[in-house]
Amino acid sequence: MQKLGEMKHVNVSRWFNKDATVTDIGSKKVVTCMESDRVKNVLHILSDRYRRLPVTDREGNLKGMVASTDIIRELSGVGKKRKLELEVRIKDAMTKNVFTIDRNTKMNDAIEFFRKHRKGSYPITYRKKLVGTISEWDIVRQIRGNMGVRVSDLMIRKPLVAQDSHTVLDVSKMLGMGGFRRLPVVRNGILVGIITPRDILSHLHKNNIPVKLREQKSSVKIIMTSRVYTVSPDDDAYEAVKLMITKRIGGLPVVEDHELLGIITERDIVDVIEL
Q: How large is the greatest C-alpha to C-alpha distance in the chain, in angstroms?
């Protein structure tokens, strides 16, 4: 995957309160899980709308984070443990040492934090207590007008793709090893779908599959999203932002004449904005 050179930053301060902190922009009502929860009991949360969940103890102290890609990496057999089953507790799948953001952090500093550490969301803490989360989504949804840059200026060119002939296991390994949030699915270079970790976890949860993910040899076509929202390379980047916000999706394939040219994500937007 590649980008063409460095992009100049786009000033978006007109849509942000200059004194805003992460607690003004982020989410205060946070869905969490606990170290003692079993993987199978958290699947429904991660397969619904959450990519990453803070893990806390009973006193609200942050103990780590668990992401859908963490679960998929272990269930597909490419993780460090290689023996993770649905009955295993979250503490055996979570990431323990995570970056956090203090609740008083100003948004301009938070944006730099996102660019430096390259995660989609972070816990907001105060004296080690979890008080909220902030995500790339929270930042991007503040943008309310044309950005003055084209989608083609920001998109990732030649993204990693899955073929529609791949199995659920094949794609799970690709997502798990690379930590990707989504993969376009193509046939002969033509976009035919998109698949996310959420699709895979939803498949496991809805079908109550009590076996390891590495036994899933069905075609990815049965679980991918076939109706894919896309943008044109010549669109202003705000067209991508609007679709991300209205459809609540974090990334969009960029196509021209049905041919996949690239992909643009929330991260690509956050990478170029400044206050």
A: 54
Distance of CA 116 to the CA centre of its chain: 16
Could you tell me which residue, 169 or 44, shows the higher pLDDT?
Answer: 169
What confidence tens digit (pLDDT) does each residue in 53-76 have?
999 999 989 999 999 988 888 788
- pTM of whole model > 0.85? yes
The listed CATH number (3.10.580.10, 3.20.20.70, 3.40.190.10, 3.30.70.20) that belongs to domain 10-138: 3.10.580.10
CATH topology of domain 151-274: CBS-domain (3.10.580)
Kindly give, in sequence order, each residue whose CB lies less than 8 Å from that of residue 78, ignoring residues fewer than 6 positions away: 173, 176, 177
Find the distance separating the first CA and the last CA of the chain, reported in whole Å.
28
